[in-house]
Amino acid sequence: MEDGYALTGKKILVVDDEPDVLEIIEEILHMCVIHKAGSFEEARKCLDENVYDAAILDIMGVRGYDLLDITTRKNVPTLMLTAHALSPENFARSLEGGAFAYVPKDALLDIEFFLQDILEAHEKGSRRMGKWFDRLEVFFQEKFGAYWKEKMEEGPEFWQKYI
Q1: Which of 55, 59, 119, 141 is most buried, with most CB under 10 Å away?
Q2: Euclidean distance between CA atoms 45 and 52, whole angstroms
Q3: In CATH, what is the architecture of 7-162?
Q4: pLDDT band of 5, cuts 50, 70, 90
């Protein structure tokens, strides 16, 4: 992807209760039309009044899973972005809830690439983990432990569904 080529003009809803995170994402995704919301209520209003190409949702502080339910029903490809809810359980809950990706805020500076990945997957009609997971697999292994996938209570069915 060359300087956000495929993202140019895409309408993106970004929801986070941290204003600095909203500003950073807006700067990185300068080629997109960004709507920012700092709360569940603001985000719900945006989703009621607009059609989005994608959504980036924080989990904590903005009722991210409730918003994910709305974006999933509206067929808006959604990327869950988190710092505090970084765990294998939230990883699984995000994907099972309809998210196309689960990205740690540690990787915020690469949000452009993750967003591109989910838009490509959505366009192809695929819910499988793809490039975004390949980019983060080592991070998750370091963060969650060497055998984190095997220890997930969702079991091998989860991985068969998404990989």
Answers
A1: 55
A2: 13
A3: 3-Layer(aba) Sandwich (3.40)
A4: low
